[in-house]
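Quick one:
INPUT:
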């Protein structure tokens, strides 16, 4: 089974065993859940697997996915099975040792999934049904279980096991106490327990149903018979049950919207996410901190992969319990559930900075930039913002330059847009904080000489020069601006520039429009129009030009959009081209239509900034790490 994959004696690499194949996959990508499942199936079904291999595989898997209660149960059952007799009537290990090992696994499981009813049920079943432990030991675990999840609407099965334990031990006083505790819990099947309690109540003596102090309190100074006293006793419990029923009814719609109470790597539906947020809003307004905390913990079983839920939980903890409790939430998220997710580290860093823990905040950013996502521009920018807020100007410059160099070193991994993004932010810092336009211009010139394939970077250079020219407003300044913008366009449109033909096609349009609107020579416009046509012919691009729509009238040609606003630019095409979808709706008053599927430059510019609205790497990187860790994709919004 564990055959070598190095050599088979003939100089050729040996065929890897199925275990080795999947083990290699999960080592490269520990978030590949499906490969983990295949690996665990192998260790469960292959008799030749050693105990060390099985234990190691389970431990590694549960280190990555600790909320999978079913695998905690399988792991514990495996440990227990080692103490059972095999075909030769010889157990692999002593049965007492096997039992102890299984209990340890279950205990680890309930620490990892404390708020899972299913995890507690598995543990209790193992103790009572498999081991037949003493009532005291079973009761101790059941007490811990109902303390943790007794108020869960699905905890009815756990309470039922508690009732069964005390019934088998004929402890009616304890049974009565458990029934009374149940009436406080918003269980889905509360009415079933109420019916059972009524049967129990009728069969018991008064001294079982209440202490002498309780009976005296109910009776007061009056002399009342046993029948009336029983009625008053049951009315007290019924009032509690009725109050709990009101709680259930108020939350019934929210509970119905929960489509999954267990963890899985597949995404939670949008409707379910909205329901969780609405439910949490309701509980926060209701103001019961204990109930609200339990709901958050329930939510974070199904939504453990959503950093937005962890951040929300930490914010609520900070408001209600303070800094230390909120910090514990962030630590759980970053050390266990979202340890490959850059966004949660940056949220944690912002939280630490807000609480004046600056060195700790820096450490969180460095975790991202050093290992989790070294080419994530957003992490460098947030770290620079921290230093800027502290007035550490030199530190800001150093971090920007470090980040830009990292992006430059990783251009082979498609980091050019991250390079552009970081450069643009550095330029913005130099303009607004240092007020040094020449330094900003030098940064842009250097960037476009080093990285020529980023359309966004070229557009920003053009925008920068036009903005500077407009601010100065003099005739000489405008001429300088036109000269500089011309130079940028010429550099971007040269053959050696790495922009693709569609991007250059859009830039040609922008360039001609710039000359028409700002240039002083009609002859130059005509000459450059000829250059554009020559370029299009050489690169196989359509020669279509754009026209301005001055007004909209009914009965317009099919190739014009009736929804287009006055002032938009629209490509004149024939009906066949429009039907084929070769042009798209304008995105803004400054947008241009794409040709043969080209992306408009304005749209590209907007899309670039939209890409970095939230935390996360560029689309060419997964949200966890630019190295090898797998991406959850849709499981994690805005990553």
């Amino acid at each position: 089974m564990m055959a070598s994959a190095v050599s088979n004696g003939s100089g050729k690499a040996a065929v890897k065993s199925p275990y080795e194949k999947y083990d290699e996959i999960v080592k490269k990508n520990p978030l590949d859940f499906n490969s983990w499942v295949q690996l665990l199936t192998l260790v469960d079904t292959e008799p030749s697997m050693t105990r060390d291999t099985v234990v190691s595989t389970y431990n590694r898997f549960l280190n990555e996915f600790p909320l999978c209660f079913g695998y905690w149960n399988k792991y514990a059952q495996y440990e227990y099975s080692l103490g059972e007799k095999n075909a030769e009537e010889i157990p692999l290990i002593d049965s007492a040792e096997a039992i102890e090992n299984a209990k340890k696994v279950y205990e680890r499981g309930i620490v990892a999934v404390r708020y899972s009813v299913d995890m507690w049920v598995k543990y209790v079943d193992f103790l009572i049904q498999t081991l037949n432990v003493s009532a005291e030991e079973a009761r101790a675990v059941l007490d811990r279980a109902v303390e943790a999840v007794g108020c869960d609407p699905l905890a009815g099965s756990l309470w039922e096991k508690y009732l069964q334990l005390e019934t088998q031990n004929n402890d009616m006083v304890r049974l009565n106490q458990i029934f009374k505790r149940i009436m406080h819990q918003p269980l889905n099947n509360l009415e079933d327990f109420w019916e059972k309690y009524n049967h129990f109540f009728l069969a018991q003596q008064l001294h079982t149903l209440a202490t002498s102090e309780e009976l005296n309190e109910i009776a007061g100074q009056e002399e009342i018979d046993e029948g009336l006293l029983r009625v008053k006793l049951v009315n007290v419990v019924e009032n509690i049950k009725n109050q709990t029923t009101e709680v259930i009814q108020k939350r019934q719609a929210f509970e119905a919207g929960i489509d999954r109470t267990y963890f899985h790597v597949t995404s939670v539906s949008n409707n379910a996410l909205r329901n969780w947020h609405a439910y949490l809003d309701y509980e926060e307004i209701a103001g019961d901190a204990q109930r609200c905390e339990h709901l958050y913990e329930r939510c974070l079983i199904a939504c453990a992969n959503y950093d937005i839920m962890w951040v929300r939980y930490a914010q609520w903890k900070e408001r209600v319990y303070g800094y230390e409790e909120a910090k514990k939430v962030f630590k759980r998220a970053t050390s266990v559930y979202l340890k490959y997710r850059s966004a949660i580290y940056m949220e944690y860093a912002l939280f630490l900075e807000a609480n004046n823990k600056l060195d700790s905040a820096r450490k969180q950013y460095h975790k991202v930039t050093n290992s989790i996502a070294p080419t994530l521009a957003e992490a460098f920018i947030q770290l620079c913002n921290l230093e800027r807020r502290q007035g550490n100007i030199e530190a800001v410059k150093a971090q920007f330059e470090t980040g830009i160099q990292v992006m430059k070193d990783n251009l082979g991994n498609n980091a050019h847009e991250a390079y552009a993004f970081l450069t643009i932010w550095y330029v913005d810092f130099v303009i607004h904080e240092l007020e040094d336009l020449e330094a900003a211009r030098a940064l842009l010139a250097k960037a476009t000489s080093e990285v020529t394939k980023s359309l966004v970077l070229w557009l920003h250079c053009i925008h920068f020069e036009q903005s500077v020219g407009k601010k100065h407003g003099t005739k000489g300044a405008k001429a300088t601006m036109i000269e500089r913008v011309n130079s940028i366009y010429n550099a971007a449109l040269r053959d050696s520039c790495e922009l693709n033909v569609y991007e250059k096609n859009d830039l040609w349009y922008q360039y001609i429009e710039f000359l028409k609107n700002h240039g002083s020579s009609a002859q130059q416009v005509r000459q450059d129009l000829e250059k554009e046509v020559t370029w299009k012919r050489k690169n196989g691009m359509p020669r279509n030009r754009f026209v301005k729509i001055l007004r909209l009238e009914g009965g317009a040609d099919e190739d014009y959009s009736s929804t287009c606003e006055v002032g938009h630019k629209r490509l004149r095409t024939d009906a066949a081209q429009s039907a084929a979808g070769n042009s798209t709706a304008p995105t803004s008053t400054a947008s241009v239509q794409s040709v043969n599927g080209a992306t408009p430059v304005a749209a590209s510019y907007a899309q670039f900034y939209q890409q970095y609205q939230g935390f996360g790497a560029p689309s060419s990187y997964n949200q966890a790490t630019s190295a090898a860790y797998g991406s959850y994709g849709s499981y994690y919004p805005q990553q």
